[in-house]
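Table 4 source record.
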Amino acid sequence: MSPANPSGTNTLALATSPYLRQHADNPVHWQQWTPQALAEAAARAVPILLSVGYAACHWCHVMAHESFDDDEVAAAMNAGFVCIKVDREERPDIDAVYMNATVALTGQGGWPMTCFLTPNGRPFFCGTYYPKAAFLQLLSAISETWRERRAEVEQASDHIAAELRSMASGLPGGGPEVAPELCDDAVAGVLREQDTAHGGFGGAPKFPPSALLEALMRHYERTRSPAALEAVARTGNAMARGGIYDQLGGGFARYSVDGAWVVPHFEKMLYDNALLLRAYAHWARRTGDPLARRVAAQTARFLLDELGSKAPADMFTSSLDADADGREGSTYVWTPVQLTEVLGGDDGRWAAEVFGVTEAGTFEHGTSVLQLPADPDDAARLDRVRAALLVARLARAQPARDDKVVTSWNGLAITALAEASVALDDPALAHAARRCATRLLDLHVVDGRLRRASLGGVVGDSAAILEDHAMLATGLLALYQLTSEGAWLTAAVDGVSQVVERFMHRARHREHGFMLALVTAATCCGPPDPRSRLMPTGRPPSGRFRRIAEAPA
């Protein structure tokens, strides 16, 4: 039998991540990802159980309640494994490495991610969510296999790591410009994949295609292609009028579980809303579309009001949870009776018709997610009804907020607010972008080096990864373009110089371009694949920044 865990305690109360702190009271002896944790696994000669999630993840909460809060499950975990919890938002390098392994081994990925590793960090079994009974069976089977067939497990893990390294080919090199005909071909391919009935691309679940919308707008600016603009308008309208958009408080949910944007997965992420604010602001600036302007203004307001940090002020927190009081979406959904109780008979019936609230419902238990298929003729009445419903909604249980401040996501917010201030002619948004950049540079740069995240004014130990440097520099350059103030350009160039110095692959790895992290979580598995990310990586802007940094003075 393995000796007892030397620490014998759960150490997550010391974490700067709110997600990790949520697990500080679990009976599981959770540790953070550290060299000491890996060394403990080697000393005890037991596997590592790695669990990766994030604060706004519904199924992460479900597995925590079913398994990690359970004494029987915790006892099995503590006896047979060194248990490590990772916040994917704080350590995207670790998440990306093991998500590649999970997808390679199972054909799919998601969170919570559950991986079993050898003490040197090599994966040999991966999955996602497990209900309690299945998880207990899995723990028993993994422990037995490790005890009786360890050599085979280690051989398999070596093979998996070698395969993952061979897959980590990075992005192909290329010059600073892409031939226009290649862009035209790429756009034509994208347009063939669009959902002409409901907007977006592909089927359910549907994620907001913010990068594609931005790319199509730029293609329209270059070519005046009506097809590109029509695709932007179709998807932009469908999302803005669907349930994925909060029709009362503004802001977009993470994704839609259906193909028509009706029922969202209710968590709201800073990076999604920053990217979509930028896309809608771009659409509004180029076309003057009133819906685009309204959604851009409301999304900017959502960022400032709902995700703006309080202590310290001026930066932006990470996300709002999908759940409130353990019930997914309960803050946001309505029945016809509830509308009437808040608004009275006439306005209640009118609101039900305007927002698509029916007796059958579009969500669970006869509730409906608010949609706005068309603007009603009486705009003043709509504003009055929205305000009354929002006040009533604030009296409900509210989703928890992850107050972690992530450098890259704040960089995205700075860029979006700076550009939206021009599109909407709103100087207040420019001031918000400037305040965020100033506070971020003051707090997240420690001894000349950028850090990944902070909580409550306390900066975490994790170094910034490539996307942090790249997105922050993009935001600083946006401020320079907006204000012509040289300090922003100087700060951006200083950051770019660090990117080129610290993140360029050298020697035999040079073909990979920029590394995603200075030191990846598990170099045994190779660098993360930039094509597998849900949000933009730091590599595309970093390629441009390299040319800035290497340009003659």
